Amino acid sequence: MTQKQLDESTAYLIGKGFEQPEIGIVLGTGLGKLVDDIEEPIEAHYNHIPFFPLATVEFHSGKLLYGTFQGKKVVVMQGRFHLYEGYDLMDVTYPIRVMHQLGIKKLFISNAAGAINLDFKKGDIMLIEDHINLQGGSPLAFKNVAKFGDRFTDMAEPYDKEMRTKLTAIAQREKITLREGVYASVVGPQLETRAEYRMLKILGADAVGMSTVPEVIVANHLRLPIVAVSVLTDECDPDNLQPVNIEEIIAIAGKTEPKMVKLFKELIKEI
Predict the structure, then answer these.
(1) Range of weakest confidence among 11-15, 47-51, 192-196
(2) Which of 5, 21, 183, 244 could disulfide-link to 75, CB 3.0 to 4.6 Å?
(3) Domains of the chain
């Protein structure tokens, strides 16, 4: 990655009309409906944006959208990138750097995840308050990283406390159950074994997924405040483990999505 590449990607999007967005939003698996509420959307497909990777997962649609959402200018990633698709961590996080260069001041992230904490149920939403990086690398581990920000990025508070507090208050007001916990990010694409679920519980994870953490690391590198939620689509009980059903996971994500959209809508109104 070079500054010239970022400049080309950004220039292309500005040419399409992506003018000074305030908020960036990353939508996870089965969580694409938020874009229905964007006013006067402008689309840019990933395969047309210079130096952008391509989304290869069938339920990730692969485009950036720009428009007005709750009175704010937003840029939305509909479809994200994962290590399990064969990308490296710089590919996975490249769109975050582009959105930052476009001018976003805050980043909202969503994902679909499995519940490790068995007090949490499928269909719940979990506000991520901390994470465990189990992806075996860092998106900041490259030679010229210091040109883009501090090499030794502090991660004492990776998720913005103020936005988390506001989201908790919104959930109470809207009578939406909002759990809070630690998200562990693994490579995938295989699901975890029973022994791995037990290990994750011992490590202190409340949920597990295959995304989000690289984007959060880069956002912290860029000093971009983040709020992130997991839609819990399955319960990972090692003593009663059922074979995974991807269709069911997508269905649960879709069913829970209106609550997540409501939370994001109300938070965007308030910030």
Answers:
(1) 47-51
(2) 21
(3) 3-270 (3.40.50.1580)
